[in-house]
Amino acid sequence: MIRRAPLFGTVVAAVILTFVISALAALLYHAPSLDPSYIWQDSYYRHVTKFSFYQALLSTLLSVGLAIPVAHAINKRHFKGKGLLLKLFASTLVLPVLVGVFGLLAIYGNSGLLAEWLQHFGIDASFSIYGLNGILLAHVFFNLPYASRLLVQSLESIPFEQHKLCAHLGMSHWQKFRLVEWPCLKQQLPHVCGLVFMLCFTSFAAVMALGGGPKSTTIELAIYQAIKFDFDLQAGALLAMWQMLLCGLLALAVQKLSKPLPAPVGSLQRYHAFGHDSLGSKIWDGCWIGSAVLLVVPPLVMVVLSGLNSKAWAVLSDARFWQALSASFQVALLASSLALALGVMLLSTSRIWRLNRQHFRADKIELIGTIILVTPGLVLSTGLFLLLRSVTDVFSVAFWLVIAVNSLMALPYVIKTLAQPMFQLVQQYQYLTASLGIHGWHHLRLMEWRALRKPMAHALAISFMLSMGDLSAIALFGSQDFRTLPLYLFQLLGSYQMEAAAVVSLSLLLISVLSFSLIEKLFKSEARRGDA
Amino acid sequence: MLELNRVQYHYHQERFEFDLAVEPGSIVALMGPSGAGKSTLLALVAGFIEPSQGDIQVNGHSLLAQLPHQRPLSMLFQEHNLFAHLTIRENIGLGLHPGLKLTKAQQAQVEQAAQMVGIGEYIDRLPEQLSGGQKQRVALARCFVQPHPIWLLDEPFSALDPVIREEMLTLVKRLATEKQITVVMVTHHVSDAKAIASHFAFMRRGKVEVTESINQLTSCHNNQHLSAFVRAGE
């Protein structure tokens, strides 16, 4: 069939490429040398690079290693609030990092709940959350739930009949894990490990808030420090290039390792434990689920509890809070809408290429949409910073730069959420729409809008939450006049105004969660009205 | 009058060359072994694929420059005829306007068509709440409201059980007669062809080998492939 791919996807790809390439050109221009050995010969850079890999490796091992028994237990057991827990687990990744960090500080910090209790019992708590400990804790807090969620998803793809068969053959829990569940998990592990490693390797806000001094600094943070504090643009550019090279190599490796997640099976039949269920295995599973809940829930509860303090009124009557809130809202709204629009346009083109069996082209244009994985937000911001400072006052266009960078950061999530549904929509209905003459605006209104509203709402909500909580773009471009909530929170944390920070944390958490559910709800009620 | 004149099409190693003339108001059963090119012929007429040579005409006017939705024909596929996310009412309405901007009269027309095919009471449901036969009835209702004089049916009832299949065939015949529609229907079943068609076209290896009146469709036809095909189906 003759299908013409819409042009705007190509245009979007070209614009994104131009944007990223000009930022990179600025980096290239400013970097003193392009020889990687230049970095390797500097002992500080070498240390920073080693530490980036070291902490990412440890974080991955801990997060994914512990996620395996957790996912196994969650998949096997049914308990009240399981759906909610899984939803929470799926969203820790887009939770504003500083909110999570604040919650962790409130429990494990030097004057946190844990230290207080220990002191109460006369034990001197001499551990410190700052440094490698804190970074690992934060990374496990954010990534273990997400990894568990992905692994549960892969366990759910085991056909119902196989569970029956296992019972029929009299397999014990351990035998079943070894022979049926582990082979299924094993297929997903490279993908999950790769993803978590990338996230930890480029993690910025958590390291910035919890890393203690030069001993535990990552490349991402070193770039920021070089530019923001040392005004050493050359070093910033060089490190940014170095980070990009490493991320590119990592992304390639991840792509080589990973297989796509299995699509959820048609009938969502619940896992059933047929036959004998021993007390021991109940306790074992209960412990894992309990520990995971203990890891994730208390910090969030602490955010809520400590947010309701005597400073609340002072913070809420401070104009800076409202300015930051309004800036955050504008950034999040514009960035998430832009990300959704860009994603839909890219995919409208790539899906037609896919239908025409031009898979190579389709893969490449979708790859351009996820380019931010190779050029992390901070690297891109650095390039833009260097590029624009010779032309204009960077801070006067800061608002738009943050929106652009945040929307590019959200774009991979949009593409991941919408690629499959958007392709299936045209794959299934291409002849029907062609013979009925449904195209252009009518197609958008009757097909995408009516059939894909749910995934689109989800993509928008995720992008919104991500932009709402992001610190990496605003960190460089923020100023006295332009400050988002995460930056405001960071400044409060930095000046140890913990009570005010608690209030802002709670506000950020509430706003993120409320906007997320509001967006999804709005779209759903529209859908119901449309169906009537 | 629908005519295919030396219509050629290549797909990988396969070559097709079709000649066919369909009289207005007739119902033609398109038959033949798998891979003979039945669906390819329909796709060419519908405009989903383009011939490398030859011409396809309706009443003397070539269709080749027209996009699928501009051609004077309605399509019915074996499956996926309905948009799962739209109601029955909307699915039928799409036959009248691709953006569902319907006048009062057209809205009434949709309801009337739904009544006619016997699914009037389900009109505000979603397709997933209907059985396979009911879904095809909805699709037929959409064909019925479309203003086109030719229907192309690509194995529309193969997935249905024999009793429902027979009901559907009767329905097609009734609707087509009422609006004086020309029907080209791909089918595997000799009995289907005999139940509904006025003519048949037998295809083999990318060509239309025989086009005759339906009462010539017998196991003692002098084309040995055709007679074998009929015998196997009996």
Summarize the structure.
The complex is a heterodimer of chains A (532) and B (234). By secondary structure, chain A is mainly alpha-helical.
Structure description:
The complex is a heterodimer of chains A (532) and B (234). Chain A has 532 residues and is mostly helical. Chain A has 23 helices and no strands. The two termini of chain A are 34 Å apart. In chain A, helix 1 (8-30) crosses helix 15 (319-355) and helix 9 (173-201) runs antiparallel to helix 12. Chain A is globular, with a radius of gyration of 24 Å. Helices cover 77% and strands 0% of the residues of chain A. Chain A has a domain at 51-214 and 221-230 and 248-307: Orthogonal Bundle (MetI-like fold). Chain B is of the alpha/beta class and 234 residues long. Chain B has two domains: 1-72 and 154-234, 3-Layer(aba) Sandwich (Rossmann fold); 79-147. Helix content of chain B is 33%, strand content 25%. Chain B has seven helices and ten strands. Chain B has helices spanning 38-46, 88-93, 104-116, 132-145, 162-179, 190-196, 224-233, and strands at 2-11, 14-22, 27-31, 53-58, 61-62, 73-76, 150-154, 182-186, 199-204, 207-213. The model of chain B has no long low-confidence stretch (mean pLDDT 91). Classes of the chains: A mainly alpha (532), B alpha/beta (234). The interface between A and B is medium-sized, with 21 and 29 residues.
Helix/strand layout:
The complex is a heterodimer of chains A (532) and B (234).
Chain A: H1 8-30, H2 36-41, H3 43-76, H4 82-91, H5 97-108, H6 113-120, H7 132-156, H8 160-168, H9 173-201, H10 205-210, H11 219-228, H12 233-257, H13 279-307, H14 312-316, H15 319-355, H16 359-369, H17 377-389, H18 398-436, H19 441-451, H20 453-469, H21 472-477, H22 485-494, H23 498-531
Chain B: E1 2-11, E2 14-22, E3 27-31, H1 38-46, E4 53-58, E5 61-62, E6 73-76, H2 88-93, H3 104-116, H4 132-145, E7 150-154, H5 162-179, E8 182-186, H6 190-196, E9 199-204, E10 207-213, H7 224-233
Parallel strand pairs in B: 3-8, 3-9, 6-7, 7-8
Antiparallel strand pairs in B: 1-2, 1-4, 4-5, 9-10
Helix pairs in contact in B: 3-4, 4-5
